[in-house]
């Protein structure tokens, strides 16, 4: 801050305080006659005024810098949850404009990459079905079960497994796409899944008869619950599995509890990695393919849901699905 003096046309003496700003200078003037005979007090007032204005200017400059950063941060969080916001406005200092441009370009590339991945999965799955169908037809045309009925039965089972995996891959590629969210009765969705499992001879305790409406992607919810329920049945030591639904105005919670041996605490996050299995057996009837929980986590993240595995009160594991209300 600098002090200067000047005189006006009437001969009055003025004292000016110049305060440098971001791009301009701020000048405050006082008539010397108004200061009286207390220059120290006048200087103190000028110093206080300059300090206040300096802080005010610094706050404006900081705000000008933080607003674009807040927009980038908000968009990054939305992308992390599977949403694709509008490009961030490119404004502010040059460095922030470059950062925003880079971020917008990166988010567009990620979006295109995920779309290409989905298209690739669907294409590969579709193309694999043609030779598999030809192999199945050739096996059916072999006389006398190819001379070895047991071997032929094993080959057919393997082909059926491959076909099932291909069908699931095609379905998942559709579910991972951004589907339109619709009003869905969660109770009806869970009831359909549980009834299908019960028809296969599985014992399931179902708690949640009250209707619960939510706007979400029903295909993704069905896949997440189905995979978690199949896991609970597979590793539940042939004991009943309990499914609970809690629904209020702000939060929806689905609990799937088995009575198996449980999952060690240091591996509860690892099981969500692709091809990670607690049981190292390669058999798909015991150890599974290692993709079920990985698919659950991807679908949950894409829809803004949370899925966690927790220890049950006595024994077993609780799979907890938390779905916030979407406006």
TrEMBL record:
Transcription in keyword set: no
Q: Which InterPro entries match?
A: 2C_sensor_his_kinase, HAMP_dom, HATPase_C_sf, HATPase_dom, His_kinase_dom, HisK_dim/P_dom, HisK_dim/P_sf, Sig_transdc_His_kin-like_C
Entry membrane topology = Multi-pass membrane protein
Start and end residues of each Histidine kinase domain: 123-327
This enzyme's EC code(s): 2.7.13.3
Query: What is the enzyme's main class?
Result: transferase
Its UniProt entry gives the catalysed reaction(s) as:
ATP + protein L-histidine = ADP + protein N-phospho-L-histidine
Q: Name one Pfam family in it.
A: HisKA
Q: Where in the cell is the protein located?
A: Cell membrane
Gene Ontology terms: cellular component: plasma membrane
**GO molecular function ontology, one term from the record:** phosphorelay sensor kinase activity
TM helices/strands, residue ranges: 41-62
Q: Any idea where the HAMP domain is?
A: 63-115
Which UniProt keywords are listed?
A: ATP-binding, Cell membrane, Kinase, Membrane, Nucleotide-binding, Phosphoprotein, Transferase, Transmembrane, Transmembrane helix
Q: What is this protein called?
A: histidine kinase
Supply the source organism's classification: Bacteria, Pseudomonadati, Pseudomonadota, Gammaproteobacteria, sulfur-oxidizing symbionts
**Gene (UniProt):** envZ2
């Amino acid at each position: 801050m600098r002090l200067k003096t000047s005189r006006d046309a009437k001969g009055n003496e003025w004292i000016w305080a110049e305060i440098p700003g971001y791009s301009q200078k701020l000048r405050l003037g006082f008539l010397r006659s108004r200061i009286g005979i207390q220059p120290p007090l006048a200087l103190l007032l000028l110093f206080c005024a300059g300090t206040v204005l300096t802080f005010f200017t610094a706050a404006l400059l900081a705000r000008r810098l933080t607003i674009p950063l807040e927009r980038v941060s908000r968009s990054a969080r939305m992308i992390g949850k599977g949403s694709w916001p509008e490009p961030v406005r490119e404004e502010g200092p040059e460095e922030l404009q470059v950062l925003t441009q880079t971020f917008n370009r990166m988010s567009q590339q990620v979006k295109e990459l995920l779309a290409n991945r989905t298209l690739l999965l669907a294409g590969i799955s579709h193309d694999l079905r043609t030779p598999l169908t030809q192999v199945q037809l050739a096996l059916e045309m072999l006389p006398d079960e190819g001379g070895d009925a047991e071997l032929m039965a094993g080959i057919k089972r393997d082909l059926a497994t491959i076909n099932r995996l291909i069908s699931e891959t095609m379905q998942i590629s559709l579910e991972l796409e951004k589907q339109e969210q619709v009003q869905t009765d969660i109770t009806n969705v869970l009831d359909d899944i549980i009834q299908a499992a019960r028809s296969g001879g599985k014992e399931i305790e179902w708690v949640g008869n009250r209707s619960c409406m939510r706007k979400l992607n029903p295909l993704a919810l069905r896949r997440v619950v189905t995979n978690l329920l199949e896991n609970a049945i597979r590793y539940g030591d042939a004991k009943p599995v309990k499914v609970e639904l809690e629904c209020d105005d702000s939060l929806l919670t689905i609990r799937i509890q088995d009575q198996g041996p449980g999952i060690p605490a240091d591996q509860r996050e690892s099981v969500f990695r692709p091809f990670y299995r607690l049981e190292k057996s390669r058999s798909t009837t015991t150890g599974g393919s290692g993709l079920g929980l990985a698919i659950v986590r991807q679908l949950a993240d894409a829809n803004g849901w949370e899925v966690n595995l927790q220890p049950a009160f006595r024994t077993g594991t609780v799979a907890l699905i938390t779905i916030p209300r979407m406006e």
